[in-house]
Amino acid sequence: xxxxxxxxxxxxxxxxxxxxxxxxxxxxxxxxxxxxxxxxxxxxxxxxxxxxxxxxxxxxxxxxxxxxxxxxxxxxxxxxxxxxxxxxxxxxxxxxxxxxxxxxxxxxxxxxxxxxxxxxxxxxxxxxxxxxxxxxxxxxxxxxxxxxxxxxxxxxxxxxxxxxxxxxxxxxxxxxxxxxxxxxxxxxxxxxxxxxxxxxxxxxxxxxxxxxxxxxxxxxxxx
Length: 223
What we know:
Elements lengths: L32 H31 L3 H27 L6 H18 L5 H27 L6 H23 L18 H11 L16
Helix pairs in contact: 1-2, 1-3, 1-4, 2-5, 4-5, 4-6
């Protein structure tokens, strides 16, 4: 079965209805309800997170003075919108929808960050974006593993593709931020492994005899 189409559509900004019920962790680890519920929950989190990122990057782009950087942010924004469309299609196939409350909350978060970008200078928006993109890499890698456990195998390549794109975004923002003198004074995060490790680590997980199913926990900001 082919994976969901990935293209830009205005409807990805439209909040939808309900959150899927979460299942208890004692359900079967493979092919049961638990992996599917965790996958659904994680995709809902990612979908709303992409809304906040897109809104924030629109303000970030507006604040930049260099035309080259504005063009680069424009490409990143298009990537995030495309991801949101892919996630919406995947949620529909899972029989679920985005969570309206979380959509509204992340809309407000994105707009607040957008406003900050316009008054917060050049460095801190670049630094904050890099840190968040590092988390997004792990989020999509975890989603690909959950798709394997839930036997939605045609989700795997699109999710790994999105992880790779987020890797590119993290590198872009981290390279920008680390060129600024303030970089030496701020907390750092572990540099993500090489881009190729996204695929190879998934293949290692796929070949492993023991494939634990991850329990998804929502960050406090999006609960």
